[in-house]
Input
Amino acid sequence: MSSDSGDDRRQESCGAPGELRGATIVLRPTTEADFRTLDRIVREPEVAAWWSVPDDYRDMLAILVDDEAIGAIQFSEETDPEFRHAAIDIFLTTNRHPLGTDAVRTLAHWLIHKRGHHRLTIDPAAANTGAIRSYRKVGFKPVGIMRAYGRDYRTGGWADGLLMDLLADELT
Output
């Protein structure tokens, strides 16, 4: 899934993948050229309902279709050997939401097969049924509701989150 250029090997050695190809999408580290587009996307009403505007887009991977940034995906890793796992988070421009399944599957494949994780988590808002449906297609299963999990930056109130996880052999 990753190309073999020296630049990609350098990025992988520090934890970030180079270019990853899915069925329809490409993931690659964001560049400054992506920041305005990603900032516009995250402010779309259907995206802003679930995402606040990030302070920085540098630690994300751009999601591309035909070389156009349509969103971003990010991951974090717990490296303690007793609890090793990775977590994923994603946002996409409104009319490209169906491509989220491909983006999550592509990153999950890399995290499992290249980074050696046996378990991944994702934590959408409990009311975000579209995202939950997409993550189920990749193999994520609900673990439980995290009550008052995330602050709704628009209202200041708290919203429940759904913790979902995927074991390596459940990746579709």
Q: What stands out?
A: The chain is about 25% helix and 30% strand. The CA atoms of residues 49 and 154 lie 8 Å apart.
